[in-house]
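Loading example: each entry is read as two labelled lines plus one structure line.
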Amino acid sequence: MSILVLKILLGVAAAGYFLSAILFWCKKRVPAYIANGAAWVLNAVVVATNWVNNGYVPFVSMYQVLTFLGLCFTLANVYMVLVHKDEWVSPYFNLCSGVVMIGCCIMNATLIWHFVPALQSVYFVPHVFCYMLSYSLCAVASVLSVIWFFNKGNRANLDRGIHNLVLVAFPFMTAGLLLGAIWANQVWTEFWSWDAKENWALVTWVFYALYLHCRKYKSLQKFQYVFTILGIVALFMAFQGVNIFGASGEHSYS
Amino acid sequence: MKLIMKISVVVMSVIALVVAVLGSRQVFFHIDTDFQSNLVIWGLIVLLGIFVIAQVICLFVFPFNIKKIGFYLLHIGLVAVLLGSMIYYMAGIKIQGAYPVNEQGSSASAYHQLVKANPTKGENYVANFSSFRFGVTDFAVEYYEPVYDIYRVNEEGVAEEQLATDIEINSEGIYDFGEYGQKTVEDLVDDAGEYQVVNLTEDGSIVGNPRSSVKSYLGDVTIVNNETQESREDTISVNHPLRVNGWKIYLMSYDETQNAAAFIFKYDPGEYIVTVGMVMIIVGSFIACFVRPRQAAASGKNETKKPGSKKKAGDAK
């Protein structure tokens, strides 16, 4: 499948995710789920094509990882709906998926990426998977945190929703961070090299840990959403900023 | 407890701020910090020390409760990671070495450089390191089939415009350059089997450049224990370091022109403590975030039901 066809699929998937978000807001549940499902299937087709092109799991380039991130939003959404009965967060998951799909459409989508020796590790898939799942949850939590500052009428619901999201995101982020460190000790000789991506990943983790700590005591609760918003800024720096600004380091191929 | 929590939050915030400053320097100004000598590391160590003390106090002050097992695992794990890292910082040794490949596994012309050593016992690394001999008997590098990129080049042969990218070999062993025709592998490789830059037009204005990457490095090594004179033959590859007499040997790269492989030898007495600590943190965070919230959610449901049930009772009356 050519790059053009894949990009068209991603564009249609983005439209499907956005349509689903609008339908959820309009309380049209069944069409919303159908649009979400259809967009997710198109998204999955692109991920599967990347997988076939690679011959191994498609986590090697940023384009491939972002297409997989689109899938994670819906997976996380399904968990939130089934376990926490938080269907009202569904449009935010779809909105974030749509934005990521647009990003995939406009970025350089090199199809052939070779699996270099440093990446050939059992830690590779769980490291990336844990991070993508936590990033999808954190992105939605940050959107809700911004809304929390402006919507005084619905704060209790938002508060519970954000907490549920971070409670799922945090252990996966922890696993992503530390499995990466254990892997680094196998391949780069050190658990921690203080390179740009690692530093921002640590800052992100500390910010979300601070959010969870601030919830414990009433006098600190006023700071909690400052940390979820700072967390998403740090997360963006770790995930994209390091690549965009061309910082050197061990993570040069990620 | 409020005070300890507040101190923890302040220290965590300062750690985040310091690391964010380091990360910003790297991202925006491309300045890396030398952690072996820079004062920043000592600032971080002081902060981490306060952080550890605050956690230890928390662990002792809070009454023990088995339901908080996730909390204990996570926080004891953090202390273990910091402790193990400190042991490595104080007692770890790291040596970089380049070994010529020869059938005898001779390391006579190997080149060594001390990368990191215990600051108080810097000279002892030689004694430790000489507990075994190491040599490389054979080395294999496997490459992926290259992909070709097409460029328009000027008269000096400098690329001016990229016209196509990622042209890969098809199942029939042919590279299809579209309007510039097709080439077989035989057309593209030289006598030594190396893929070459190919002229796609007669005037040489359009060229195809091969781009290949390494698929695997595999070294056959021989290790002789100097005390017992026992010899061990093994293979080493990236991501699969060897363990010898408390040392870990990593394959880092291979220089084809010198026919020599680069290794790093690391002695890290804190490694197991750090690894166990990290596993404790991962397991603890999952237990703390997935098990406890259900209890909280359950109690939360009870709290929200109570007013409703009272109302119903009132309605019934």
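Helices of chain B lie at 2-28, 39-61, 69-91, 125-129, 185-188, 271-290, 292-316.
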